[in-house]
Amino acid sequence: MRSIKSLEEIRRIIILHKRWDMIFMITGVIALMIAILTFMALFAHMLINGMPRLSWEFFTSFPSRHPESAGILSAWVGTTLVMLVTAIAAVPLGIGSGIYLEEYAPKNFLTEIIEINVTNLAGVPSIIYGLLALGLFVYQFGFGQSILAAGLALALLILPVVIVATREAIRSIPITIREGAYALGATKWQTVSDHILPYSSAGILTGIIIGLARAIGETAPIITIGALTFIAFLPPSPVKNEFPYISFEWLTAPFTVMPIQMFNWVSRPEEAFQLNAAAAGLVLVVMTLAMNGLAIYLRYRMRKNIKW
């Protein structure tokens, strides 16, 4: 009798757990559908309002007081250049820092403090990074209100994200790979460069995608360091006709970016400017998706070439 009762209790517990699993699954699906439907509704509204405004003139025209002739030329060029500086500054430094903390740094009290601070910095509000960049890059280093200062500010913003993602990707590599490399006489750097990095590259690239996707839509740090809301000229070209064919004058040029241009148009009362803002938002979403799509393609190629 006692065994029959125990079996019935076990059966009741299993049924109860399955019921809670079903409730949790339904709740998760509902939450996911709300999020997806909200995004689809907002994107559809932006697509309906902004699509008619998209034209070649919209991409090749400067901002204007007249909404019919206003464009995003200076905004999308500025966004591209700022993101280029951000990627060049944040990606190598973030990956290198993650490799050092995970593979080379001694496990002591100082390292633990650094790890905790890096993790916490990933959740710091972006305006704090803008104030830091204003005091450090704009005034202390004398970069001014330039593309270089904006790119470095966004690099500081996404640096903790890249470091944390790099460390997590390295941690996911089985310890047997390291042991096998050491058993065959490989050095520490040979193990990291020939085995750890290739196998963890997909996870590292995911962190880079998340970081750059956050940076391209940020407004607060860019406003803090002095991005212009109206600019009717382009930075100097990075490529020149004479030797050495590369110019860095564009790094010190004034700039604007897509979120700033959208904010400028949204703040205006005319409905035509609202349509311009919707079109600019659509372009920004496409730029983000294109950047993410390229990174996902590279991640797929890396995973395909890896032989376990």
Automatic annotation (TrEMBL):
Transmembrane segments: 21-48, 73-101, 121-141, 147-165, 196-213, 219-236, 248-266, 278-298
GO biological process: phosphate ion transmembrane transport
Recorded superkingdom: Bacteria
Topology term for the membrane: Multi-pass membrane protein
Alphabetically ordered keywords of this record: Cell membrane, Membrane, Transmembrane, Transmembrane helix, Transport
Subcellular location: Cell inner membrane; Cell membrane
Primary localization class, coarse: membrane
Record-level Gene Ontology MF annotations: phosphate transmembrane transporter activity
Pfam short name (any one): BPD_transp_1
Classification via InterPro entries: MetI-like, MetI-like_sf, Phosphate_PstA
Domain ABC transmembrane type-1, first and last residues per copy: 76-295
GO cellular component: a single term: plasma membrane
Family to which this protein belongs: Belongs to the binding-protein-dependent transport system permease family. CysTW subfamily.
Record protein name field: Phosphate transport system permease protein PstA
Protein encoded by which gene: pstA
